[in-house]
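TICKET: design request
STATUS: open
ATTACHED STRUCTURE:
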């Protein structure tokens, strides 16, 4: 067994254990952290398959953005764990059947790959899994689909910002422009008052 195969089995074992902890951990924060470990090990497997672009995208997008958002939401919300776990064991048989079906489908796909000649598999890994080759394919043969997808994503970002920034009557908002324009005279008012002494008032009361 060479070093690549050994690393593949190590990453696969860690990935399976981390994925199992994601669905069995009682603390949602721990489950989210185990999911981060799952993504990292999956990225390691992509690197072993010479698909470095997919590995970097998996780390940057899912670990760097999606999982950070999940952690913020989980840590800010007061989640009732007992309510979430109601009926968990009742769904285990259905989940086992679905998991077994997915495992059989993946096994069928992998067996076709193992039955191929070594030269065909080696050629496919070297040519397809390269970032430079992927960039050439995107910007030569798939330029218009790439541009259309970018335009759709940009439109989705603009729509999300527009929906978020709409003013609602039942919510408070902060206007940075109005805060910058505020002057000292608008917030502080100096009032001239006559000085009052407690001793003088006490002496007047006793003299009276």
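STATUS: resolved
RESOLUTION: sequence designed for all positions
ATTACHED SEQUENCE:
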């Amino acid at each position: 067994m060479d070093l690549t195969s050994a690393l593949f089995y190590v990453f696969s074992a860690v990935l399976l254990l981390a994925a199992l902890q994601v669905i069995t951990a009682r603390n949602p924060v721990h489950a989210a952290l185990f999911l981060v470990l799952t993504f990292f090990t999956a990225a390691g497997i992509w690197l072993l398959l010479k698909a470095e672009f997919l590995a970097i995208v998996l780390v940057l997008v899912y670990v760097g953005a999606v999982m950070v958002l999940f952690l913020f939401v989980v840590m800010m919300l007061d989640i009732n764990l007992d309510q979430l776990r109601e009926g968990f064991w009742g769904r285990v048989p259905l989940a086992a059947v679905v998991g077994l079906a997915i495992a059989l489908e993946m096994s069928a796909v992998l067996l076709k790959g193992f039955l191929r000649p070594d030269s065909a598999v080696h050629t496919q890994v070297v040519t397809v899994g390269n970032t430079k080759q992927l960039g050439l394919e995107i910007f030569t043969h798939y330029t218009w689909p790439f541009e259309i997808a970018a335009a759709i994503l940009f439109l989705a970002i603009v729509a999300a910002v527009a929906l978020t920034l709409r003013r609602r009557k039942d919510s408070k908002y902060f206007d940075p422009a109005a805060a910058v324009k505020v002057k000292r005279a608008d917030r502080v008012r100096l009032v001239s008052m006559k000085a009052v002494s407690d001793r003088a008032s006490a002496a007047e009361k006793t003299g009276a």
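CLOSING REMARK: Residues 123-128 have pLDDT under 50 and may be disordered. The domain at 1-81 is CATH 1.20.120.1200 (Four Helix Bundle (Hemerythrin (Met), subunit A)).
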